[in-house]
Write a structure and sequence with these properties.
single chain; about 475 residues; repeat; E_motif; PPR_rpt; Pentatricopeptide repeat-containing protein
């Protein structure tokens, strides 16, 4: 490095393209912020700082050394001249930072105070900043600006708009944009498919995948993530195995994101042995890996395995999250371990996890299954939020199992008041009365259902269809 800087300070003579390239490589290879400042000072003492490419690269280098604020921003505003290339750099760095609103401010400053106009690389960066900051209305305004500037047909802009609407849950609007594009790249197909998968529209996602294959777009591991999520939602084990095989044949099955997706798919298809085997084969595991498996065993009622996994996870220094505790509480509920559930519920505070409604629901379910119905009622009263029908329903189901008429009557009245059209509450209350030999009261509940025109919904089941996967996932 000393030799490098000796050459730097001995540089003299007219500025030419080779000298600019030399300094450009020095900025790129600067190992830390101290050396970058030396380069910065040297550029300031020469006319090289006037070169917009060099000064723009300096802005980017400071950002890469985690000095976006104040260094990158200060360098940017002290640049003798700025073009769209330099504006895109500073807007892009802020759009990817923890301060995405600053990217929007910079864009507005460019639009209002400079003669530089955005191109089809600028607007995707601004749209990304809108997504990161949750600015829905502003994002729609920027969509209007894209139309005004005639950039809505750009693949970069259109892909960013589709991603924006998908992220904000506006799947229909995203599809309208998608269908309106005369040409689509793999990114746009992938974003749209991912949107259907994450917003639980598996049928539409499968139809889009077929279109994607017919269009000649080769699927990659990102597409496989979406397809695994869809298979899990539909419980399509056979097709999920086919995708797993595709990943294994390309040596991708043990990668973290794909491994987590494969484990999740097998868990949702209720094949815990396959899920655990994939988990054990993964080269790397994170809190998502552990939590998914714990939740799977918890919901299946395998209390021992869920608790063992939880203890191993803690021993390996993995900090549990809200999903982890939901899995443990579910396991305790299925095993009737009310005391263990209370201990785990209290433990959430030790790891900085704030209980949500679903955690309270699992705790109430555990108490109700264990027969502690009065305790469950008291627990509900102490909740910081209003109980929903799922929480009250768990207590009512416990009353049915343990033949507690008194609590059952109180809870059933609340549930019927909340959702008078749901037949299940009437049926449970009627069964509670019948089990206690209160046949007149049971008959009165049935008559009430008839008077309110509430009927019991018929049961249904699903059957896995023929293979919909193209040959691209079977090769």
């Amino acid at each position: 490095m000393k030799i490098l800087f000796k050459k730097l300070y001995s540089t003299s003579g007219p500025i030419n393209s080779s000298l600019i390239s030399y300094y450009f490589s020095l900025v790129n290879s600067s190992p830390n912020c101290k050396h970058l400042r030396h380069l910065h000072a040297r550029l300031l003492r020469t006319s090289l700082y006037d070169n917009v490419v060099l000064s723009s690269r300096l802005v980017l280098a400071y950002s890469h050394h985690n000095h976006l604020l104040p260094c990158s921003l200060s360098v940017f505003f002290h640049m003798p001249q700025r073009n769209i290339f330099s504006w895109n750099i500073i807007i892009g760095e802020f759009s990817r930072s923890d301060s995405p609103l600053k990217a929007i401010d910079l864009f507005l400053h460019m639009w209002q105070s400079s003669g530089v106009r955005p191109d089809d690389f600028t607007l995707p960066l601004v749209l990304r900043a809108c997504v990161s900051s949750g600015m829905v209305k502003l994002a729609v305004s920027f969509h209007g600006l894209c139309l005004k500037l005639g950039l809505e047909r750009s693949l970069f802009v259109a892909s960013a708009l589709v991603f924006l609407y998908v992220t904000f849950g506006k799947i229909f609007d995203a599809r309208v944009l998608f269908d309106g594009m005369p040409k689509r790249d793999a990114v746009m197909w992938t974003v749209m498919l991912d949107g259907y998968a994450k917003h639980e529209e598996p049928t539409l996602g499968l139809a889009l995948y077929r279109e994607m294959v017919h269009a000649g777009v080769s699927p990659d591991w990102v597409v496989m993530l979406s397809l695994l999520l869809i298979c899990g939602q539909l419980g399509w084990l056979k097709h999920g195995k086919s995708i797993h095989g595709w990943c294994v044949r390309r040596s991708l099955g043990t990668e973290l994101n794909l491994g987590n997706a494969i484990v999740d798919m097998y868990l949702k298809c209720a094949v815990l042995t396959h899920a655990h085997r994939v988990f054990n084969m993964m080269n790397q595991r994170d809190v998502i890996s552990w939590s998914s498996l714990i939740l799977g065993y918890g919901l299946s009622g395998d209390v021992g395995t869920a608790l063992e996994l939880f203890e191993n996870m803690i021993a390996k220094g993995i900090k549990p999250n809200e999903v982890t505790f939901l899995g443990i509480l579910s396991a305790c509920a299925h095993g009737g371990l009310a005391e263990k559930a209370s201990s785990c519920f209290e433990m959430m505070g030790d790891y900085g996890v704030t209980p949500e409604l679903k955690h309270y629901a699992s705790m109430v379910d555990c108490l109700a299954r264990a027969g502690h119905l009065e305790q469950a009622e008291e627990f509900i009263k102490r909740m910081p939020m209003e109980p929903d029908a799922a929480i009250l329903g768990a207590v009512l189901a416990g009353c049915r199992v343990h033949n507690n008429v008194e609590v059952g009557e109180r809870i059933a009245k609340k549930l019927i008041g909340l959702e008078p059209e749901k037949s299940g509450y009437y049926v449970l209350l009627s069964n509670i009365y019948a089990a206690a030999s209160k046949f007149d009261e049971a008959e009165n509940v049935r008559e009430m259902m008839k008077a309110k025109n509430v009927s019991k919904a018929p049961g249904c089941s699903s059957v896995e269809s023929e293979s919909w996967l193209s040959s691209s996932t079977k090769q």
